[in-house]
Model the fold of this input.
Amino acid sequence: MKDRTQTLARGGGLILLLVLAVLYPQAWSNPAVVNYGVLALIFATAAVAWHIFSGNTGYISLGQAVFYGSGAYAMGIAARDWHMQGTAVFELLPLCAAVGALIAIPFGLIALRVRRHTFIVITIAIFFIFQLMAFNFWFTGGSSGLGSPFLSWAPKPYNQNFYYIALACTVGAVLIAWLVGRSRFGLQLRAIRDDEDRARGLGVKAMRVKLSAFAISGAITALIGGVWFYYIEQVEPQTGFNPLFDLTLVLMVFLGGFGSISGAVLGALIIEPLTLWLNTQPAFSGSISEVIIGAIFLLVVLFMPRGIIPTGGEFIKKIRTRGRPAVVPATTIGAAPSAPPASSVSSGGAR
Amino acid sequence: MAREITQAIVDGILVGGVYALMAVGLTLIFGVLDIINIAQGVLVILGAYLSYSLLTKAGIDPFLGLLITIPAMFIVGVVIYWAFISRLRGGERTSMTLLVTYAVGLIIEGILFKIYGADNVQISPKYVNSSVRIFSFYIGWVYIWGFILAVALVAAIYVLLYRTRFGRSVRAVMQDETAARLVGISVNRVAAFTFGIGVAVTAAGGVVFGETNAFNANSGYDLISRLLSIVILGGMGSVGGALAASVFMLSLESVVTIWQPTWAVAVYYAALVIVLLYRPTGLFGQKAVRAQ
Amino acid sequence: MTALLRTEGIRKAYGGVQALNGATIEVEEGTVAGLIGPNGSGKTTLFNVITGYERPDAGQVWFGDHAITGLAPDKVFAAGIGRTFQLTRIFPRLTVIENMLIAAQAKDRPRNLLAWFGRDAWTHHRKHALELLAFVGIDRHADVLAGSLSYGQRKLLELAYVLVADPAVILLDEPAGGVNPTLINLIADRIRLLNAEQGKTFLLVEHNMEFVMGLCSTITVLESGADVVSGPPDIVRTDKRVLDAYLGADLDDDDLEATALNKGEGR
Done:
């Protein structure tokens, strides 16, 4: 059966990718090279988290930095106040995720009641509030930020270990995104994207569903924010809550293909190393990274509006289905089967 | 105490006029074109830098220089529209325009940074610090000119929209793009023109902003976040709402500064959040819900 | 016979336009009822009021013994009233079968986390959905994106949709609009089948007179937001008020009588 071979091929491909990913730091063990991998995977996790909410519901969030920075700060504050050091600090990661989810709830309750474009703007506003709080609250270390607790790994295993941690996070995020995608929950999210009012009219509890997805997305982003903080060993208000962060995420997702998990991962794996590399070139110093990101985004939007994966997928489809009609033909309807019996599924209802 | 508060409110109203000018451009673009122009903040800074350069390099008074900067910014707006926004299609258009303008804003900011560096500057013509005394309140000349300018420009836009043939085309496009096309209105041309006008007012906003604040290339962020809050609070698409919200927010901030300068900016967001909890469309937002 | 669905004196205004002006209709249980009237007479608005998409300014909607005026759409749907839309409102980026499943899931609250994420809960939903798709004849396209269906196929999907929750009353908004004759006959056929075999009650809004006259046992005429005439097709077809409503009361009355006589209507 064609379906079977397709699934096997896909599964095989994924396993191959995973194996390659695991072997990457062994093959190129230079810490600088592994560093690219660590940051790429951190962003891949954040991009997948973005997709879980925004990709499925169509509500574009430009406030993921709220979760990212909060996760980073949560880890920093907890480690400082509870005097934690070394590998024990990783135990704080679930706390970061919880912080993310908790913030998502009031955030979502306010932001998800409005129309889609107002939603985007509110996420930006909330982002600025959080950046302001990071600058001004007494426990966040103000404008000098927080330093991370001490971790006694040598440079080479340091980068490698963080690589595997980030890889685990990415795989976990992809798994969650996949589960959501094939579930009833995911279907409701996508129905909301297509026609929220109709979905509501059919009984979908839109606010609850949107809020849940938002919380999951926030939790994952906050967790990876904690990982990032521990990796680069410090956080400041403008790095934890970086205005570029969300636009970079959106760029990654759009480049790879809006609405697909693999698109989000691919976009991150392309853009992040590219950005890092550009920043090391002397010609592109200072604020040029802003210009580059903006320019790449514009180019993508103009020439590849649906991203690599869908455009690539369509290209492949074109080759495969050469000669076949594009539209589903309106074939004549055959003889009528009798009306199916009343559904045994419906559970009561006010009749 | 009462005197201080009144002075603060007066300041707030005057500064509010300046912000209203910038916010009106933003809300106009949204109301007519369904475009959220995130670059508006940076464009104000661009206008401010233009005026600054005109002053420091050519000695031209900033207000006079508006004769140059307003058309210049108009052209910038039209170019941005033609090059990037007009090519966007599809149902997710409004969200996409937001991202595109965000990207354009980033590029402009990066370029400004490269040209002017990180140092703060301020537009300082000779009269920038002089003020006039009315009923024991001190009002800076700059604010007065700025306020007059704001009123004049908003009135001009109103006249344009409601008393000219072009304005009729704009309002037609705002209501139904397809129908407008069917009666022969070149929608793209109207849109580009409108976008240009929405950006052109940033030249004026830039002058007054630049004279009353020290700024650099990064000042656009703070500015756009305030402008967005004002526009949402007033209701996206409502010019009157933008005016009312500007004055309200700035007065509030001004009064709060008396006690707590650090947190004064937070009132913006707090006010925004509170309003949205009760009126998701903003105070005066009456735009019909478009199919999403 | 009891009236299963009833409206009493519904009034609804939009700005200066009085869309509904005292609309009172009755639908008996187990019948196929029609709602006709010239454009702008308020038919779709009445549908919207009944199904909760609009709130009336005055008047009541009764479903059996319950007043359902002003209930939210999903509550009306849960109560057992389904409806289709004039401009088909399907989910274009979901597949046909996924469209059906969304309609199905409303009636089956998941018990635990597993039901949320697992696929097993869906098996009998899927089966039922596929049966319905086969009933309307588009089961072949179950895995196609709903957005790529032709207009006629979308109408069929909407019909299947509405049946998923097994409603007692089905409101169809222009089911034959813009559809080719073969499909019209199919739709009429399905409605008759559902009515005869399962006793479902239908209320249709339609402009296609042949369709309405041939299918409905009772027809109500709406004009300027109020009900004008109600009765079996033969009575309604020749009622002077109906002709006035459609043709305009300006026409000379003599001309109308002459037209009616020329058509050879009884006498």
The domain at 3-89+166-262 of chain C is CATH 3.40.50.300 (Rossmann fold).
